[in-house]
Write a structure and sequence with these properties.
Length: 698
Amino acid sequence: MVLIPGICLVWGLQSLSAQTPTDSELDIEAFMEERFAFQDEDIDYEDLYESLLQVHLSPLNLQQVTAEQLQSLSILTPLQVESFIGYRDTFGPLLSVYELQAIPEWDLETIGKMLPFVVLKSDPIPLSPPGVRRLKNAENAYFIVRQRRIWQTRKGFSPPDTLSSGTLSSRYLGDPNDVYVRLRLQQPGDFSVGLTAEKDAGEPFTWDTDSRRYGMDFLSLHYTLYNKGALQTFTLGDYQLQFGQGLVFGAGFSVGKGAETVATVRRSSLGLRPYTSVLETGFFRGAAATVTSGNLAWTAMYSSAPRNANVQLLQDSLEASDSYLSSLVLSGYHRTESEIQKKAQAREQNIGGNVHYKNRTNGLQAGVNFLHTRYSQPLLPRARIYNQFEFRGDQNAIGSLYISYNFSNHYLFAESALSKSGGSGSVVGIMSSLSRQLDFSLVWRNFDRNFHSFYGNAFSEGSRPINEEGFYMGMNYKPSRKISWSAYYDHFSFPWLRFRAYAPSSGSEWLSRFTYTPNKSLVLFAQWREERKSRNLLSDEQSANQYLLMEGKRRNFAWNLTYQPTPWWQAKTRIQLSSFLINGRTTRGYAIFQDLSGTINRFNFSGRISLFDTDDFENRQFLFEKNVLWAFSVPSFYGQGMRYYLLAKYKISRQLTCWARWAKTSYTNREGIGSGLQEIPGSEVTETTIQLRYQFNR
């Protein structure tokens, strides 16, 4: 039912003019899986997926791409980046993508990974803002509508119970459909206009200005211009910033620790870019601009955005002006009355900027960041034993200095920041190609316990740059085209208490991965990871408010075989094993799956059968799954059961493409799934997804 208006709109748009740009397909799940050794809940996969797709749909122009932009993809080694820049400086503009084969150190595997993210263009970019005709003829223009649903009835959608007080129990106010809509008009290097809207399952479709609901629960818009003379970028609406090593502005494709052990440790200064994801945090809303002058680029930004929050009144006060925020709500859900009451209860204002220097001859880059944040009410989280040094108040300021230097086959990079509290944070590292076969990286970081960065995303063990010191070493050795070995070791410490660890602690993590590629059709890898980290252990011999810190040891192993006899057929087999040891007790888990995917004319399909068995939640198994375009899936499974899914894509015409996905999980050891209002009676959960995309100008 939800799709009917979208279908009518799609067919009604077919009167627009057509032209046929090239389209390079990207197996984004495979790309992400290569970079993450093992999946876990601390990584924001959806934002990474969104950032990667943005580069794919707005590829880098090989005639103008910089070393910084090439490095940001986390595909090339320092030696390969240096080889490309040197080749282009020596021989001039490339004549064809096939010329990439002539670049020293660029093998066919590297070229294959790069092709979805690069393009060759020589057309001049208009200096004037786009009019109706240019918007109408945008090269990358599309409309997407998607509906997803879980078919078992969750408790939140069941009739409410009558409580002992005579009131009705809480239930979801909306229907069980997830609905997603996106409209994008983009000419790479010229302009981008976009609208993204989403309604989660349980959220009502309502127009209510009092609760700041305007149809869909979440709306995001942007209008962005590129390369208009000295004006490099200008944007209105939602946007993100990425400069230095992510201590102040850390948006973008930042992987960190993973199976790619060298190229992913360094952040890139990609600057200002529009925000197009459906995550309801981590972006600015307002206006920003970057202006260039010689070797300098100046960026200024202003943002005023509503934030979801829990609002409390100060004791002995009934005045609204005496309220404070006990916490910011980051879930983005507004399904029940209580969740809706938390929507847009605070306003966050940000003002800041960046000055970036780039020497075009010797590879030196440096810059200054500044960001001032102000909340409409003071943020005063409830005092806990571990959060004594967290931010409290209504204003924060943070500034940083950063530098990077590219010489020969080496990258040096560093950033140091200071927040209003007096806490500091620093990241220093190097990436180097010692030879054609060997690359390595070193990263040291230190974040004080009172270092406060709301939009930072630096290289770290924790999900935020705070209360941590660590040293990372990574290497990648490729003795031949068929064999490669990557590994890293990371030692970290937490000088102050953390959530679930009420004493200073330390830990370590290492990974080793061997990959064997005997021919173009077969890839085999095996990887091991071990992580040691301390946590609270409640003992019968101590009181309830005392905690004993105990080291937990987590081990993971994965074996993967990918066989692709032709470009149209692929099979993948994977085995995952895990164990968790703490206080002398070991629990275990495993998952096995078989994938098959293929292409027949306009029809693409993929499917999976998987089996999982874990002793407990600590051994839950995370599995990448293929999904419809712009939807990313990394579900986790624990207990005993099986998981199946089928995904089909059909290209109805040059403009119109349809996706359909069915997935089912069956448990053998439980009669209920989930908890609270998400609880499903029984042992099975089934979900479906339908998506339509209409591409203009095809």
